[in-house]
């Protein structure tokens, strides 16, 4: 009798614990790999799916949004290295679909309405927003991404200079899936030291912190064929206010101590002499002090690197190397100051100097600053000193 | 049936560790930074300090009355009627608390893993497994904790080590937080001391002490367990705040879980660790709920003079289940946990202190050397 009761219980448990409710075959899922968000300018309304068709529908602060999604076609994406021959191009492996809506989720639901299988965002790699969207503000988009349990913090959020949807249409030759190519490109740029760590998780940290602002990768599509990292979009609160040029990323990486190094700088020594300097290691010490009742930031930047190219000169002695170091120091100092000044004008503290002030000058922060808005005011006229030091370690395998 | 007395100090320690590392520490960084922003580490130290005092009181009581259980010696100290009344309070309090943490755990599972599975099934499955596990005697349950200990400790250490490289020391500064007053810290500390794991950790001692090898083992095990789990909780909090900053730590419901979703093994051995870690959190929830459930049925059996705690294993099930299904949504649940947790401080801190005080005055129990 006792055994019978036990076996009945076991059978019930098996039924309960099999988790059949959430069984989902991979073919039933429409896996979104990449998502792009554009503004929809025409006044045509969307399909009345979540709301009646009338003029009085709440619309997100940026207006109507157009969402383009790159879906993985089940069974078409090869696992492991592609075997060459036979395989089709990106047209076969992915599918690009579009929808418009009054808000993020409205657009996503409209997208779902067109598809036979359930949308799945767990493998989302990239979200691309157009510059227009970024400039109008990403508060609601950011909230949606953060709220969605399937979307991860290591998703890339990118700003495209023009239309975001273009990015999803390009067909690179190196990878079957365009979005994977793009995310691989960004990951690689970080490894080569050309780009700061800036996935959506890091962006949110910068956005939420009181003494810091967020930045996102800024890309452009060249000739509808390839994608180029063309700078860094920086934000003031929730709105994009400008973008850095690609060469400025090197100095940004220096100040925020992003390692490994790797970015290069063409250093002009005299009218017809120049060298190409490539950083390998960056060390940056930032200190916040109080000077005459106002905060003062001191940046001590040390860059260790190599010479990879030269023009019209011989590099054969410590003396020459020291001369190059001196001039490079001057260049880096000048560029860093320029960069800081530019962000100060736009009131976007992407370096997080405010966090140093908040951390080290607690009483100043508590009496004078307290809020992010106030910090941006202070940041505008913040005095920043940049000290640079350059060390040349190698100059290739030539003796002169 | 007589229960054997053979729990060792290390088993006591591991049991306390497993009971304290549970679902509530996932939300701890959020609540700590809500109270005192970047002073989160300090406020947690304060909260856990209060907990250590509670554990100290309980250990002293256990040392004075090594052979009797909590309910029995409270009868000796303050008489039958009053101790029965307080015993009932303890029972109701833990039934609510265990129900609520089971619900919180199920909420987490349903939002990340099983969106379509009914809540009843998630809650029910966990509680049934726990109820079956409590059919064992207390020594065996401490062996269960002994077995699971490395499965919780190693991933947690791994998490701390992996996340450590992303810690930005700016975010944990200033240690006192910005614009905080003393009362902010006091309130924050009390809120943290009212966390479910604190109550479970303290009251688990009342179950374990009568079954430990010797009172000395009990003292050593409980103090070590309390300190060790506190240390790990503070470390996990430190890395969470250090990676997110106190402002961002406020925004997810379970910041520590979000952190575990972010960490990656070096060399990209596995692209995603979150499913692995979700398994660890399920284990940690199981061990915590197991201890809590054991407290309910053990206290219940002592209160109603039953032969063994096993009798109540299934009887308590509908009660805890009812408590778990009561909250309407996650906000309601969090409010209830905080409310019940704060009132619970009377039961787990003030009542034992009161007992100890009376025992000292009336010279009951073994006199300390």
TrEMBL record, chain A:
<feature type="domain" description="Spore germination GerAC-like C-terminal">
    <location>
        <begin position="230"/>
        <end position="396"/>
    </location>
</feature>
<keyword id="KW-0309">Germination</keyword>
<dbReference type="GO" id="GO:0009847">
    <property type="term" value="P:spore germination"/>
</dbReference>
<dbReference type="Pfam" id="PF05504">
    <property type="entry name" value="Spore_GerAC"/>
</dbReference>
<protein>
    <submittedName>
        <fullName>Spore germination protein KC</fullName>
    </submittedName>
</protein>
<dbReference type="InterPro" id="IPR046953">
    <property type="entry name" value="Spore_GerAC-like_C"/>
</dbReference>
<dbReference type="InterPro" id="IPR008844">
    <property type="entry name" value="Spore_GerAC-like"/>
</dbReference>
<dbReference type="InterPro" id="IPR038501">
    <property type="entry name" value="Spore_GerAC_C_sf"/>
</dbReference>
<feature type="domain" description="Spore germination protein N-terminal">
    <location>
        <begin position="22"/>
        <end position="221"/>
    </location>
</feature>
<keyword id="KW-0472">Membrane</keyword>
<keyword id="KW-0732">Signal</keyword>
<dbReference type="Pfam" id="PF25198">
    <property type="entry name" value="Spore_GerAC_N"/>
</dbReference>
<dbReference type="GO" id="GO:0016020">
    <property type="term" value="C:membrane"/>
</dbReference>
<dbReference type="InterPro" id="IPR057336">
    <property type="entry name" value="GerAC_N"/>
</dbReference>
<keyword id="KW-0449">Lipoprotein</keyword>
<keyword id="KW-0564">Palmitate</keyword>
<comment type="similarity">
    <text>Belongs to the GerABKC lipoprotein family.</text>
</comment>
From TrEMBL, chain B:
<feature type="transmembrane region" description="Helical">
    <location>
        <begin position="185"/>
        <end position="209"/>
    </location>
</feature>
<keyword id="KW-0309">Germination</keyword>
<comment type="similarity">
    <text>Belongs to the amino acid-polyamine-organocation (APC) superfamily. Spore germination protein (SGP) (TC 2.A.3.9) family.</text>
</comment>
<keyword id="KW-1133">Transmembrane helix</keyword>
<feature type="transmembrane region" description="Helical">
    <location>
        <begin position="146"/>
        <end position="165"/>
    </location>
</feature>
<protein>
    <submittedName>
        <fullName>Spore germination protein</fullName>
    </submittedName>
</protein>
<dbReference type="Pfam" id="PF03845">
    <property type="entry name" value="Spore_permease"/>
</dbReference>
<dbReference type="GO" id="GO:0009847">
    <property type="term" value="P:spore germination"/>
</dbReference>
<keyword id="KW-0472">Membrane</keyword>
<feature type="transmembrane region" description="Helical">
    <location>
        <begin position="343"/>
        <end position="361"/>
    </location>
</feature>
<feature type="transmembrane region" description="Helical">
    <location>
        <begin position="38"/>
        <end position="61"/>
    </location>
</feature>
<feature type="transmembrane region" description="Helical">
    <location>
        <begin position="311"/>
        <end position="331"/>
    </location>
</feature>
<dbReference type="GO" id="GO:0016020">
    <property type="term" value="C:membrane"/>
</dbReference>
<feature type="transmembrane region" description="Helical">
    <location>
        <begin position="12"/>
        <end position="32"/>
    </location>
</feature>
<feature type="transmembrane region" description="Helical">
    <location>
        <begin position="113"/>
        <end position="134"/>
    </location>
</feature>
<feature type="transmembrane region" description="Helical">
    <location>
        <begin position="82"/>
        <end position="101"/>
    </location>
</feature>
<keyword id="KW-0813">Transport</keyword>
<keyword id="KW-0812">Transmembrane</keyword>
<feature type="transmembrane region" description="Helical">
    <location>
        <begin position="221"/>
        <end position="244"/>
    </location>
</feature>
<feature type="transmembrane region" description="Helical">
    <location>
        <begin position="275"/>
        <end position="299"/>
    </location>
</feature>
<dbReference type="InterPro" id="IPR004761">
    <property type="entry name" value="Spore_GerAB"/>
</dbReference>
């Amino acid at each position: 009798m006792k055994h019978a009761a036990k076996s009945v219980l076991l059978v019930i448990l098996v039924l309960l614990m099999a988790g059949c409710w959430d069984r989902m075959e991979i073919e039933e899922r429409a896996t979104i790999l990449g998502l792009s968000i554009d503004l929809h300018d025409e006044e045509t309304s969307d399909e009345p799916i979540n709301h009646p068709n009338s003029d009085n529908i709440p619309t997100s602060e940026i207006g109507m949004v157009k969402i383009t999604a790159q879906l993985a076609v089940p069974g078409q994406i090869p696992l492991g290295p592609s075997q060459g021959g036979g395989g089709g191009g990106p047209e076969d492996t992915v599918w690009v679909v579009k929808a418009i809506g009054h808000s993020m989720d409205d657009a996503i639901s409209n997208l779902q309405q067109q598809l036979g299988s359930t949308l799945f965002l767990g493998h989302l790699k990239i979200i691309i927003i157009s510059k227009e969207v970024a400039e109008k503000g990403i508060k609601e988009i950011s909230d949606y991404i953060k709220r969605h349990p399937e979307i991860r913090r290591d998703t890339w959020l990118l700003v495209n200079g023009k239309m975001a949807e273009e990015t999803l249409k390009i067909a690179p030759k190196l990878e079957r899936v365009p979005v994977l190519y793009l995310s691989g490109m960004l990951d690689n740029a970080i490894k080569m030291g050309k780009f700061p760590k800036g996935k959506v998780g890091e962006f949110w940290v910068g956005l939420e912190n009181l003494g810091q602002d967020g930045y996102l990768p800024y890309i452009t599509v060249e000739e509808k064929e390839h994608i180029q990292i063309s700078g860094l979009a920086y934000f003031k609160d929730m709105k994009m206010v400008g973008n850095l040029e690609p060469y400025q990323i090197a100095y940004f990486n220096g100040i925020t101590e992003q390692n490994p190094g790797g970015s290069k700088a063409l250093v002009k020594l005299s009218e017809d002499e120049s060298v190409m300097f490539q950083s390998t290691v960056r060390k940056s010490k930032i200190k916040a002090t109080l000077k005459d009742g106002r905060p003062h930031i001191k940046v001590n930047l040390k860059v260790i690197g190599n010479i990879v190219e030269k023009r019209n000169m011989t590099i054969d002695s410590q003396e020459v190397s020291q001369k190059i170091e001196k001039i490079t120091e001057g260049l880096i100092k000048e560029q860093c100051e320029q960069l800081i000044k530019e962000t100060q004008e736009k009131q976007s503290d992407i370096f997080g100097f405010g966090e140093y002030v908040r951390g080290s000058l607690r009483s100043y922060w508590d009496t004078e600053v307290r809020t992010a808005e106030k910090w941006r005011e202070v940041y505008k006229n913040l005095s920043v000193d940049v000290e640079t030091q350059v060390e040349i370690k190698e100059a290739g395998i030539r003796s002169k | 049936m007589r229960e054997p007395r053979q729990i060792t100090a290390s088993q006591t320690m591991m049991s306390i560790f497993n009971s304290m590392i549970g679902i509530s520490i996932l939300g701890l960084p959020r609540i700590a930074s809500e109270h005192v922003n970047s002073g989160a580490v300090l406020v947690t130290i304060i909260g856990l300090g209060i907990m250590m005092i509670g554990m100290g009181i309980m250990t002293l009581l256990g040392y004075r009355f090594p052979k009797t259980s909590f309910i029995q010696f409270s009868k000796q100290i303050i008489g039958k009627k009053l101790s029965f009344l307080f015993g009932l309070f303890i029972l109701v309090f833990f039934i609510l608390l265990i129900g609520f943490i089971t619900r919180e755990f199920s909420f987490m599972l349903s939002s990340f893993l099983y969106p379509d599975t009914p809540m009843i099934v998630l809650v029910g499955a966990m509680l049934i497994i726990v109820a079956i596990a409590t059919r064992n005697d207390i020594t065996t349950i401490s062996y269960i904790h002994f077995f699971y200990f490395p499965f919780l400790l190693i991933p947690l250490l791994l998490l701390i080590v992996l996340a450590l490289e992303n810690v930005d020391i700016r975010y944990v500064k200033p240690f006192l937080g910005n614009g905080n007053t003393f009362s902010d810290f006091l309130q924050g500390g009390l809120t943290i001391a009212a966390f479910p794991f604190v109550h479970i950790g303290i009251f688990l001692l009342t179950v374990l002490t009568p079954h430990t090898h010797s009172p000395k083992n009990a003292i050593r095990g409980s103090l070590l367990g309390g300190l060790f789990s506190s240390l790990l909780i503070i470390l996990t909090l430190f890395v969470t705040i250090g990676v997110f900053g106190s402002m961002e730590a406020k925004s997810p419901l379970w910041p520590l879980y979000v952190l575990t979703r972010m960490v990656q093994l070096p060399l990209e051995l596995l692209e995603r660790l979150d499913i692995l870690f979700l398994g660890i959190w399920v284990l940690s929830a199981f061990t915590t709920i197991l201890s809590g459930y054991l407290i309910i049925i053990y206290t219940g059996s002592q209160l109603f003079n039953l032969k063994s705690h096993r009798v109540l294993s299934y009887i308590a099930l509908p009660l805890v289940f009812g408590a778990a299904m009561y909250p309407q949504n996650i906000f309601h649940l969090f409010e209830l946990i905080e409310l019940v947790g704060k009132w619970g401080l009377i039961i787990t801190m003030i009542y034992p202190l009161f007992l100890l005080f009376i025992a000292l005055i009336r010279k009951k129990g073994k006199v300390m050397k």
